[in-house]
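Researcher: I'd like a candidate sequence for this fold, 470 residues long. If you have to choose between options at a position, lean toward the conservative one.
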């Protein structure tokens, strides 16, 4: 090379179509059209919906990355960096949200801006405009795929789930108590992770039932699509609350706890029948509707002392210890006189007024505490003046708690156990457990562990092999 010759710069060559990846959006492989006639780059998405606070607005959207494959949908979210009017090649103008993303083509990765538009009929899910091309990029209009090719097969493997980003989620907490500890912790922890968390009063929801477009409305407005619902439905509104949850289930929203599990856990008779069906240890329990069966009820649970429980009792209310047979008969007669439904249960004396609350998230016991009743009270509920301390549980207790939560298909459950001479006995499975006592007793971020589970469930799933198409 002579002294007067100037070396050519290293050029990055692209064809008029290339394989690209947008890893930050969970899109590992797409075909893009490279169009130097277009100024801006575009992503052809659907269900485009802004959300979040005005100070940091976000946008949710979904993409069918493979043309013609509407059965494969990847949910995405990103911060909005701008909103611009874009004029298409046919002269039509459209206001679009603009997001920032990292694009990867072959060995190169660089930041670009993308506008979002719903143009599902396009042959390419992405258009790469000239603003996204650096000065050293050369486009050969007559060539295709100058850079290494990718494959749509990645969407059919678990890899797509493993590399998918933890996208920003829109989450609703169904609660009538927006200021209590559990609800505020759910909001604070979710927002700390960048999610948008809204508290919805269950009783102010109403539903439009339709085979084609079932919806949930709130104060006159249709609720948006949520990534997840965290039910905190109070016992007094169980029937209506579970109806609202069923509506979200019909829409296809992920609900941390399903309507069937909540309904079953609130009815103590139904709950004990489920425990018995799954062969889960519990105190001997009996139920009858006729007053003629009082003596048989008492004898079935081993006689006095025994426990009499209202079927829909909560927080230790409606639970009575009858220390003698005569006292048991009096309590049973009184409950029947009030036309109340109740069951009779064996009193586990060796528990000595203590029980174990195991907090199950997903398929794991994440914390446990020992609850001790106030002096002179056999009930250990914290709402009744009991105290709580952290406790190490046995393998059998851990397995029993998880098995009980699974029996009700609950992803968040407080399983109450008694330590008996014959092993752990399940007293109750709580589908809306309080979080304050167990977080303080265990010192663990229980709500954070719950969000770990929600984020895992909300990530895109691989397509089963049986549904693959060429």
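Model: Candidate sequence:
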């Amino acid at each position: 090379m002579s002294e007067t010759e100037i070396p050519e710069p290293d050029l990055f060559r692209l064809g008029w179509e290339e394989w690209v990846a947008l890893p930050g959006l969970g899109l590992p492989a797409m075909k893009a059209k490279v169009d130097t006639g277009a100024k801006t780059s575009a992503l052809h998405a659907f269900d485009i919906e802004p959300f979040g606070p005005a100070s940091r607005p976000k946008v949710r959207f979904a993409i069918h990355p493979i043309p013609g494959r509407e059965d494969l949908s990847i949910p995405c979210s990103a911060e909005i960096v701008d909103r611009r009017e874009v004029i298409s090649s046919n002269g039509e103008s459209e206001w679009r949200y603009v997001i920032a993303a990292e694009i990867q083509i072959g060995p190169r990765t660089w930041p670009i801006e993308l506008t979002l538009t719903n143009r599902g009929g396009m042959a390419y899910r992405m258009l790469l405009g000239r603003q996204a091309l650096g000065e050293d990029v050369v486009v050969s209009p007559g060539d295709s795929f100058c850079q290494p090719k990718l494959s749509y097969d990645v969407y059919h493997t678990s890899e797509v789930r493993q590399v998918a980003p933890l996208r920003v989620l829109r989450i609703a907490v169904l609660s009538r108590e927006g200021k209590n500890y559990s609800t505020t912790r759910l909001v604070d922890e979710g927002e700390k992770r960048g999610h948008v968390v809204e508290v919805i009063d269950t009783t102010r929801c109403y539903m439009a039932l339709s085979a084609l477009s079932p919806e949930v409305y709130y104060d006159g407005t249709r609720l948006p699509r949520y990534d997840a619902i965290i039910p905190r439905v109070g016992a007094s509104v169980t029937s209506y609350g579970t109806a609202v949850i069923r509506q979200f289930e019909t829409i296809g929203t992920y609900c941390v706890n399903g309507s069937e599990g909540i309904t079953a856990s609130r009815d103590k008779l139904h709950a004990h029948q489920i425990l018995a069906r799954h062969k889960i240890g519990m105190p001997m329990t009996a139920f009858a509707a006729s007053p003629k069966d009082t003596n048989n009820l008492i004898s079935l649970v081993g006689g006095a002392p025994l426990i009499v429980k209202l079927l829909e009792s909560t927080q230790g209310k409606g639970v009575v210890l009858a220390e003698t047979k005569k006292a048991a008969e009096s309590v049973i007669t009184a409950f029947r006189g009030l036309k109340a439904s109740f069951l009779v249960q064996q009193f586990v004396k060796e528990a000595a007024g203590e029980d174990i609350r195991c907090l199950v998230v997903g398929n794991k016991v994440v914390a446990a505490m020992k609850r001790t009743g106030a002096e002179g009270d056999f009930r250990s509920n914290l709402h009744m003046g009991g105290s709580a301390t952290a406790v190490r549980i046995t393998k059998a207790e851990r397995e029993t708690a998880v098995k009980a939560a699974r029996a009700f298909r609950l992803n968040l459950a407080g399983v109450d156990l008694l330590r008996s001479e014959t092993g752990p006995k399940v007293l109750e499975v709580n589908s809306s457990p309080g979080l304050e006592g167990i977080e303080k007793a265990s010192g663990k971020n229980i709500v954070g562990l719950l969000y770990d589970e929600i984020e895992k469930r909300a990530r895109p799933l691989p397509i089963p092999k049986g549904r693959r198409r060429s």
